[in-house]
Amino acid sequence: MDNFYEQLLTTKKHFAYKVANVLMYLIVILGVAGLILGKFSLFIIFELIAVGIFFFKKNLFIEYEYIFTNGEIDIDKIFEMKKRKRIINFNVKDAQIIAKYNSQYIKDFINKPNKVINLYPPNYNGEIFVAILNKGAETIMIKFAPDEKILNLAFKYNPRAIKKS
Fold this sequence. Notes:
Blueprint: E1 4-9, H1 15-36, H2 40-57, E2 62-69, E3 72-79, E4 83-91, E5 95-100, H3 104-107, E6 115-119, E7 129-135, E8 138-144, H4 148-157, E9 162-163
Parallel strand pairs: 5-9, 6-8
Antiparallel strand pairs: 1-2, 2-3, 3-4, 5-7, 7-8
């Protein structure tokens, strides 16, 4: 029997995202006005600024999706509900430990890695879990926010490593 589950961590559009969006359109309009007035250099400057804001604002509205498939966890980063990028894929059996961020299990863990990846929205205020993984020669710490169902499915594949409480 296949075990498959998807969890989407959504977020709200921040005030900064909304301001950047309005500012981008305003600067495009100012650039076009400069072009109409015959100031081509003004047009180029405003359009370059608008393009910079366009790429910057993508990083202000990010969601995460956790996909569990038969012991494999894929974590995707979704930009502006449009573009998806696979951040990491790991097998639950490769996890040394998966526990709550502030738990005694993590505090007592001896081989804490130097590389830490945060895979949850910045304004997320729920329970954060940590997975310490062996990926080849390096050890990685992932901070993410799985729900109870993902933890239960992961427990089926690696009961020693999953610490729910």
